[in-house]
Sequence to fold (503 residues):
Amino acid sequence: MAGAESLPLCYTLPDVKLFLPTRVPFSYLASFSAALLVIELVEGTPVLLAITAQAFLLVAGVAFNLCGGLAYASGAFVFFSAVLSLGLGVVLKALLGEPLQSNLIAPQKTLLVYLAGMGSVLIAALVSTRLRRARGLLEGIDLSRQVVSTGLGCLLIATVTPLLLPEALLGTFLQFNSAFVSVAILLMVYQTTRASGGKRTFHPVALASWAYVTTYYGILHFSKQGLFAPSVAWAIAAIAGGYRTSLSRLLVLGAVVAVAVSLLTPYSQLARNYAGRDDERQQAIELLTHPLETRAMYQEQSKINYELGVDYHWFDEPQGLLDRLTMVPIDDALIASTDSLRPGSPYALWTYVINIVPRFLFPDKPLFRWGNLYAHDIGVLADNDESTGISFTPFADGYHTAQWLGVTLYLGVMMCVMFLVCDSVGGSIQRSPWGLMYLLYFAHAAPEGMLEQTMYSISNLTAALVGAALIARYVAPVIGNFLFVERPTAAPGDLQPYNPYST
Fold:
């Protein structure tokens, strides 16, 4: 047959270059939002409610582009806040054929609070982007010539120092300790990816850091953040470094991630019920070694909670981890209680400032658990439960503490300060990896850190990042070189400027 010999025997899927977007074309966002609006109206969502939801997404898109996208800490906050507070839930509701108002107490009020809060974030972005430094303070600290010894030193600091410190200083150090492990993963993966031209991300030191956090904090202490944060850090650093991979490998990796999430989320939820018991390790091993049975138990428990109304939920049927990737139902309950029962107090905002002071400098500093108190207000905790932490968005927290003034003025000012400090310190990930620490933090905290995260970000987190950068530059390489003599890799000038849209 003519030309048959020219046909390929197999088809190889093309390589894909991953990148962290710095902007979203507004025309694409508007078209997507318009399509969602039509679907919501067909499914029975009231017109005003549907318009409010789409207005929130459009305002978030403008703020994201203004901040510089995921290249900056402020853009990371906008992205994760928008997606994990409302955006993902809106899309899933549309796919499930459910109107937005179902299973909510005050849907219109809640979404108006969200819209006002995102409007305040947009104004904060307008101000902060005009005042932030052109280059981040840490961008001048380059570790590309000693990245292995630095990563190894950071890992040793994180694992050995807690064993040597006196108890009086241990609590303060542990607040900063995660920065060293995160730097080890982020720095190693980022530099490995860039030095290899996007061909590989693996390095043994990064793997050791990943295994330490995943095992110690995730598996042994039943923390979802401990289970998933190291993998998220690896992914963020690889994407920021311009990782290239085949589409087939990307699909396989996506399937592996989906399976891991579906099995490890039930483990962390059920295993924590045994925390503090004499047999907690045995029970954890039993749950971990029988993942399918553990998942079935978790699904049954979720179904019972849905039927009994124990948990606030937005979807008609349990959706597993997706139930916890949207903040609307828990925020809705808090916003409704603010109007129907009692509002909070602006005093909570001042306590966030007080929490900046380390406990070793303020031994009698009171312990504030506002998330726990708010959870009691909406009735999701037992009366004698004074320790469980429940998360709310900054929007709901601002409204509960000072109503519309809280979600506009107070929230806007606090966000502006946070954006200004974080962007000016970390700079752009297009030029250095230090801003990745903020991206990693906001991936978890932006949608559920309340307004407390603003003070934590500009104080503890920034201090931890600056301290880790200085120690990584001057101390960690010395420690690492005791065990490893490193041959210099690429010099700063040898690395081409990172362009996520280049081919």
User: Anything to note?
Assistant: Residues 147-494 form one domain. Residues 56 and 115 are 5 Å apart (CA to CA). The radius of gyration is 23 Å.
